[in-house]
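Please fill in the sequence for the structure shown.

STRUCTURE ENCODING:
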């Protein structure tokens, strides 16, 4: 399958601190590709480069055969990309409907019409959130907020969805709820790139896997339990116990 995103010899640094060193990777179309790795390993920086938020890099990032630097906001692009960042805060009690509606700004030029409201209603209904539409966003739980923010990205109708730690700070119920929504989107044809911290949830829901380590992005070539255990132990510097969940490898810290 032809990759929708190709990264070639990508290098990036903050002054004297090297973050990415000759990274090469391919992300296939219509799959959920998960990037694992320790805090500060460069995962979020890689996402910012792919999303077009950071342009001072060396190498090439190809999105549907167009180099990222040449893709300008407001111009015609081969694919539409949606990006959900790791952190979002607001102190204003906007209604949920209005928060999601801001995702239509590129379509409505900040003057939404009936089609924009219909798109918002459709996405909220699709993920069973319509009962929240008139509630203040600030009154929602962390899991509900994350689902609303995901809807705000989805009303942009992205071909590629980039999620930076979408289950961060969520309890297990909402971690699974968010990932089930993401899995549904992939099954419907959306390409998803996702940074995650929990390898177990990654292996349960993902299709392709990568590990960021030593400033490089390493593709996971095998899901064989012992090989994967060694890779994760080397990455996280923690001894692990390998488990099996109906054929899906899972790992727990090995206590001393």
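FILLED IN BY: designer on duty
SEQUENCE:
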């Amino acid at each position: 399958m032809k990759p929708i995103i190709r990264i070639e010899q990508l290098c990036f640094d903050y002054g004297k601190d090297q973050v990415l060193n000759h990274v090469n990777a391919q992300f296939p179309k219509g799959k959920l590709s998960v990037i694992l790795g320790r805090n500060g390993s460069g995962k979020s920086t890689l996402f910012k480069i792919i999303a077009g938020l950071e342009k001072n890099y060396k190498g090439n990032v190809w999105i549907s055969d167009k180099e990222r630097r040449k893709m300008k906001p407001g111009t015609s692009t081969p694919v539409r990309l949606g990006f959900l960042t790791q952190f979002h805060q607001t102190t204003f009690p906007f209604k949920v409907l209005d928060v999601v509606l801001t995702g239509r700004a590129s379509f409505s030029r900040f003057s939404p019409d009936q089609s924009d409201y219909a798109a918002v209603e459709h996405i909220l209904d699709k993920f069973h959130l319509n009962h929240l539409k008139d509630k203040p966003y600030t009154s929602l739980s962390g899991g509900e907020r994350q689902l609303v923010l995901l809807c705000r990205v989805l009303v942009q109708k992205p071909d590629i969805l980039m999620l930076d730690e979408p289950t961060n700070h969520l309890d297990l119920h909402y971690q699974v709820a968010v990932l089930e929504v993401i899995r549904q989107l992939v099954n419907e044809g959306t390409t998803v790139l996702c940074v995650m911290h929990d390898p177990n949830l990654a292996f349960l829901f993902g299709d392709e896997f990568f590990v960021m380590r030593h400033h490089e992005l390493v593709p996971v070539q095998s899901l064989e339990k012992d090989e994967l255990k060694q890779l994760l132990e080397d990455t996280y510097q923690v001894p692990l116990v390998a488990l099996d969940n109906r054929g899906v490898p899972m790992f727990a810290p090995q206590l001393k």
